[in-house]
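Troubleshooting log. The previous structure file for this entry was overwritten by mistake, so regenerating from the original sequence record. Sequence copied from the archived sheet and checked twice against the printout by T.R.
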Amino acid sequence: MYEDFYKLKAKPFRLSPDPRFLFRSTAHSKALAYLRYGLQTGEGFVVITGGVGTGKTTLARLILSKINKSKVIAVELVTSQLESDDMLRLVAAALGLAHQDLPKSTLLRNIETYLMARAREGKRVLLLVDEVQNLSRGAMEELRMLSNFQVGERALMQTFMLGQAEFRPMMQSPGMEQFRQRIIASFHLDPLSREEVQDYIYHRLRLCGWQDNPSFHEGVFERIFEHTAGVPRRINKLCDRLLLHGAIEELQAISIEDVNSVIEDEKQEMHAFAAEPEVATGAETVPKAVNEVTEAANGNNVKSLRMQNMISNDDRRLLALEKKLENLDETIRRDRKRIQRMIMMLALSDDNEKELRDVMKELDAVEK
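Regenerated output below.
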C-alpha cells in the first residue's frame, strides 16, 4: 500500500530475513568476518549469538548465498528441544538419508558413508543450526561427534551455530570442555547504536528506491532507537507501520509525533487483542466497526428530547438533525484512530489486499 504512495520499488522493512538488505554495522561486519574465516577453515564450530531479531539468520543466509556450491553442500536446521537421537535423525533427513525408526548406530553409519562419498567428489558439508539455545546437552554432544568424521586431516563436516545469548553460558557449563575445544570462532552480535539506527533505516529505504519522500524530522531516529533499543527486527516492525501511517495520513514528512502515534497505536492494539479479540478476527470486522460509527449517531439524547417538547415540530426536526450531525462528527473523530489501526493490521498482511480496499472505501464514505 505505502509503496505506491511513496513510489518505492518494494517494502523496505519486511520482517523475514533477506541477505540483500544486510546492513553492515560494526558488529555485523565482525560477525560476517568470523563466518567467512570459519568457511575458509572448513572445520569445527563457528558460534554466533545475539538477542532476538539482531540479524543472526540474515548473516548466515548471506554466507550461504556466497558459498561455492560445487565445493560445499550446505544444509540448514532449525532446532527445538531435541535429544541426541532426534538430532541425528534431523541431520540425516536434511541430507536426504533414511532416518525413520533407525537405531543410532545405523544413523551414524549412514551419515558417515554419505560424508565419505561427498569427500571423494571433492565436496564437504556445512551444517547451519539455528536456535541452538534449544539444544539439549545430548544433542550438542552428537554434533560434536559428527565433527570427528574426517579423512586424514580433512574434516568432512563443519557446523555454524546461531543462537540467543543464553547459549553462551551453556557452552561454558561443566562437562562442555570437549565441545568448546572444537569452537574455532565465536562472536556475540549486539544491537545497533543510535547512529547506526539512522544509517540502517536510510540503507533499507535507498535499496527500495527512496527519494527523500518521506523526509524525517529531527529527533525521529532518536525516538525510534529509544523504542526499539537498536534491534533490527523491532526497527523493521516500527518503520513498516510508520510508513503505512504516513501513507494513510498522506504525509510527506515524518515527525516525532507520528512515531509516538504509531507506538501508541501498537500498544492499544495489544490491549485490544487481550481485551477484545474479536477486533482482529478478520477483514469483516472492520466494515462492522464503520457501521457502528454511523449507528452511534442515531442514539437519543434525553436532554434534547426535553427541549424538543418546548418548540415547534419544524424546529424539533431541525434540532434533531443537527444533533445527529454533531453526534456523527464527534463519533467519527473518536473512532477514526481505531478504524485506522484495523486498516494497518490488514495492510500488514499480504493476503488482504481486496478487503483492505473495501474498508478504505467504507471509511471514505463515512467521512464524507
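The chain is about 55% helix and 10% strand. Archived copy saved in two places this time.
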